Amino acid sequence: MANCPYCKAALKDESPRFCASCGRPLGAMPKDTTTTEPDPVPGEAAGATVSATGEDVLFEGRPAVLRGVGALLLAILTVGIAALVFWIRSLNKHYKITNQRIVIEHGVLSKRMEQIDLYRVMDYVVERPFGQRMLGTGNIVLDAADKSTPKVRIDGIKTDVLALYEKLRAATESEKRRRGVRVVDMEMP
Predict the structure, then answer these.
(1) Is residue 82 within 8 Å of 71, Cβ to Cβ?
(2) Rounded Cα–Cα distance for residues 62 and 156 (Å)
(3) What is the 8-class DSSP label of residue 175?
(4) CB count, 10 Å around CB of 154?
(5) 144-169 per-position pLDDT tens digit
(6) What confidence tier does 174 reach under pLDDT thresholds 50, 70, 90?
């Protein structure tokens, strides 16, 4: 009896097309499934969001050009000149948030990169001012136990900031468990 290479469930038929448990297509099943790697799922590139270290990319991109309604109004009043300035300013930062770390790259010609491991993150603040909510952007502010970067601002990202916060929070807890990190809050008298 063969097992599904994805979910390891026992397969009832000799050569099924789909796994009854996880629903993934199986194609031609090898006779010995213990030594072969599963084929990638159609429509998914092999390793598209997971690196060799098992790092999932949660968000990657630059800040929004027009972060709020104020920037939009200024761009309209200056007939687009402010939008050009905001665009050049948005090229200055690039964010990559994974389930293990946060990488912030600064600069257009000369580059500087900051990295913070998620197990060092102690607290999160999600900022969604009214003007940013109207344009679908938001900020995440992180407090970290890092000497070089104790406070990290991820400004004006155009994504569902609350959903990203939830993924980031879960990834932080998972990374702390994986590394065996325990945080102890102590009050000083």
Answers:
(1) yes
(2) 8
(3) H
(4) 21
(5) 998 888 999 999 999 999 999 999 99
(6) very high
Secondary structure of residue 134 in the 3-state scheme: helix
| Structure tokens belonging to residue 29 | 């099943």
* Contact predicate 95/154, CB 8 Å: yes
Dihedral angle over CA of 59, 65, 66, 72, nearest 10: -160
Please tell me the class of the 57-179 domain. Answer: mainly beta
Per the listing, tokens 């293990």 go with 100
DSSP state of 27: -
Q: Which residues pair with 152 in a beta bridge?
A: 142
How many helices (H) and strands (E) are present in the chain, helices listed first? Answer: 4, 7
Rounded distance between C-alpha atoms, residue 59 and residue 93, angstroms:
14
Strands (E) in the chain, as ranges, are 57-61, 93-98, 101-106, 112-117, 121-127, 138-144, 151-157
Domain boundaries, the chain: 57-179
pLDDT in tens, 97-133: 999 999 999 998 999 999 999 999 999 999 999 999 9
> Can you tell me the distance from the alpha carbon of 143 to that of 165, in angstroms, rounded to the nearest whole number?
13
Sequence letter at residue 23? G
